[in-house]
Design brief:
heterodimer; A: about 400 residues; alpha/beta; Peroxisomal Thiolase, Chain A, domain 1; 2 domains; two-stranded antiparallel ribbon; about 40% helix; globular; B: about 130 residues; mainly beta; OB fold (Dihydrolipoamide Acetyltransferase, E2P); 2 helices
Amino acid sequence: MSSRVGIIGVGMTKFGELWDRGYRDLIVDAGAMAIKDAGIEGDQIEGIYVGSMSPGLFAEQEHVSALVADYSGLRGIPASRVEAACASGGVALREAYLAIKSGEMDIVVAGGVEKMTDIPTGSAAVALMGAGDQELEAFKGVTFPSLYALMARRHMVEYGTTIEQISQVAVKSHNNASLNENAQYPFRVTLEQVMNSTLIADPLRILHCSGITDGAATVILASEEKAEELNNDPVWIRSSSLATDSIALHDRKSFSRMDAAILAARKAYKGAGIKPEDIDFAELHDCFSIAEILAIEAMGFCEFGEGGKITEDGETELNGRIPINTSGGLKGRGHPVGATGIAQAIEAVLQIRGDAGKRQVKGARTGLIQNVGGSGATCVVHILSGEKE
Amino acid sequence: MKGLPAHWRLLPQRYNLIGSYCKNCSGRFFPQRSICPDCRRTGSMEEFKFSGKGEIYSYTVIRAPPQGFDYQVPYVIAIVKMDEGPFITTQIVDCNPEDVEIGKRVETVFRKVIADGESGIIRYGYKFRLTD
């Protein structure tokens, strides 16, 4: 095993309906910002991993690895696309991390991008459903909100979680998004607005669901030796873990728990040599509000079944015991699926650097980011810290 | 997943609820698998037909449908625990959405699932209905 790995530069576009920017514009914009932030030159980059869930269906473009290298002015260097549904970004980050860990490369780019608004919303929903089981779920008319609704129903039955508690997740995320200039939905919503919004798949309503978003995010990783050579003070990736589960929700051991997230969290804590109580803040995968509750529990920030309660009690707010999704999360910041995992890493870097502006968590030194693919078939967790060990 | 061969090769599961039984660990799985996900033995899986009876374990009502399901809205999607053990995702039909509750007994019915446009094939398969 090679040296430690740090994040030396970050860059992201605004997230939203960006009609004037295409797929290649978005990732190049984010990449250029990250290179500038890192203070390096393009020719120092040795490899690219780009997370993108479905450019073929969203933008009629495959082979985006070479495309990204080409339009970044980096023709010639190795580039790979990474796909793990909505966890594509997080898994791309892990692949870049492993490339440095292996000793093969010293400066690697991990990007994520999705251009989702060039096709009608109904077509985007079909593309997203590719993250589920086509033969056993999509064929029956299942949608992604409905899979999370099935989980929400079980969580409510088994633990007494209320729709008010689930709705409070969205209220909190929007509060944080209102402080994030890159957010798709930078405004507050009230509990009443969430609970009276349009029903999508009972009990989930539209304000429990992340939107359809364009955006890109890029981070630049370097080995410890290279970071020292560059005189850069990185945010360290203390651990990286990835776990899988059945592709179809109905084949899981439980629907009120996310086992891949539990497994990934356990490995991530072990890898970093820390415990949940050592985490100062977290970016969790709240594609639907219930998913944040499942994630809070899986990451060990409370007992199973208590995720709704600690949200209601304000423990996950910006000034709470364990601030969750200070960026606004997938709900407020937006969810350009392939970019989300990288955007989570960027929020963690900004918090640890003390550059998070109005949404800065005081004394933030160690953060956890968790990115989910599909209804929980993939989960990737990274622990980032200002401390080397 | 359109096209005739894609539907045709899945007819055993879609028309007759055919899954697998593992002779090594006695596990039952839907649909068919060639490797047992529990004991990982290959060559020990044999065909198993499910009875099509079970109970509702979780459910939701879809109000924002994917393409091709628009005319069915609102419709119920449930996870059913089959009497033989495995869970299955299915529509619950022949009832008002308000009639569906966790724990209610259901049985399989054979129904049209989706038509691939006006001139495409009509794909049929299992759905479930309440029996309580």
